[in-house]
Amino acid sequence: LLGQILDHWFESEPLKATLATDAVIGAMASPHTPGSGYVLLHHVMGELEGRRGAWGYVAGGMGALSQAIAQAATARGAHIFAEKAVCHVLLGRDGEAQGVVLQDGTEVRSKLVLSNASPQITFLELVPQEQLPKDFVQRIQQVDTRSPVTKINVAVDRLPSFLAAPNARDGQPLPHHQCSIHLNCEGTQLLHQAFTEAAHGHPSSRPMIELCIPSALDPGLAPPGCHVVSLFTQYTPSVLAGGRSWDEQARNAYADTVFDCIEDYAPGFKASVIGRDILTPPDLERIFGLPGGNIFHGGMSLDQLYFARPAPSYSGYRSPVPGLYLCGSGAHPGGGVMGAAGRNAAHVAIKDFRHL
């Protein structure tokens, strides 16, 4: 239990609750849920420029990271085709992967195929079911993909000024504006209460909010004097109580709740908003292909990690289809911007390729 770990090391309830957010981030779980301690470990196991557990902003926004990887690949001779949706994996007579078929009918032949899509899309949509073992298909269908995350991107015409640390007169960013700001985290009980509401189909009335202002460090992301604010919030269920869907009214009502909370900490925030983009779990699934809106392609619970990710006997990146590999967040060791799954999968694929 995460709560026991934090109680062992810390006394301050606000500090414990703030640390607890990294144990429940992206997970439909409470700090009191067994196994939540692992997710905290997962978020601090990496390093940034030699500093263990540190996080950083990507200059130019997160898309710049994808572009850097793409440029490194093309420099080595790779050809990248964006906006070309894959319809299905092309299989040979013996059931081995021989390439992919695009939605426009184009066939791209290849000796190996690596999928960065979720296990659900890869094996339940892109591969004929009869080519896969029944127990494997059943396992993929049963993966817990519940997600509590609603992401809200906000454009503001001035820097938020918090009651706890008011802005300087010149309106320039202060050190805390360049960090991750955690709101509604005064106690772990608040997080548990927010989780409980969502577990019953209701968006949290006092949601957990992680607020970042990347333009405070990277001014090029917004016009002079203006800023972009990234809100990572939870808990919001994929399907609302009574089977209701996330219509425009429900989305705006939840966003208003989030903004009201921020207003309590930083009066004037709501008046500074120029625009907002609300991405509920169904939106995250529809736009980014995240199953259930889950940012990790599946819960990071102990029953879905290590040798069981994405399924027992298939944690080594190979799949039941010879020549088809899984290299995304649904593979070992899971989600996060670290590239471990992709690196490991590439090594396995290269080893197999040498024997073809």
From TrEMBL:
One of its GO terms (molecular function) is oxidoreductase activity. Residues 34-177 form the Amine oxidase domain. Pfam families: Amino_oxidase (PF01593). SUPFAM superfamilies: FAD/NAD(P)-binding domain (SSF51905). InterPro entries: Amino_oxidase, FAD/NAD-bd_sf. Gene3D superfamilies: FAD/NAD(P)-binding domain. Keywords: FAD, Flavoprotein. The keyword Flavoprotein applies. It is found in: Mitochondrion matrix. GO terms for cellular component: mitochondrial matrix. Probable oxidoreductase that may play a role as regulator of mitochondrial function. Interacts with COX5B; this interaction may contribute to localize PYROXD2 to the inner face of the inner mitochondrial membrane. Belongs to the carotenoid/retinoid oxidoreductase family. This is Pyridine nucleotide-disulfide oxidoreductase domain-containing protein 2. It comes from Aegithalos caudatus. The lineage of its organism: Eukaryota, Metazoa, Chordata, Craniata, Vertebrata.
